[in-house]
Here is the input.
Amino acid sequence: MAVPDGQVVDLWWADLRSADARLFPLLDDLEVERLERMDRAADRGRFVVGALLLRVAVAAATGVDPRSVTVERTCTDCGAAHGAPRVAGARVSVAHAGPLVLVGTADVAVGVDVESVDRGDDVARWVTREAVSKAGAEPQAPVTSLMVQPPLPRYLAALARAGPEQPVIVTHDVAESAAALEQLAAGRWP
Here is the structure.
């Protein structure tokens, strides 16, 4: 049975073990500038993994080479290069917490968030609200949100997607993401 457009959400999970120095040259100039402003190694690792996993996820969704994916991050409020990522051919969202990175792609507005349960009370409500906010759907438009299972205990994650139907979720685990990032880093992308 075919799934109608807009109902599939691809979730890509990665962790800091995929932070490989060979990925750094694949960042664009604005990403390099942003990376250079980060002091903590973990922040730098999450940023690099998220930026390149985003390209891998878009490549998987659209069939293009991940090295040709252009990511637009212009903030719609201030014009600086720290806004939500946008790409041609897919709707995307990126989140990270602790060692985890999560990328979501869909044909419709999508948002993802992940947080440690140690962050405080009501983390489930927090990640759901963040995912809905990141989906950026019109206020009157229906949005479906649901909790998703992170690959580590003591973390909660949510996704939100435009539309009233429950989406079909395709999950790419940490091992699959690591293998894709390794191929990209080694210059062996199919």
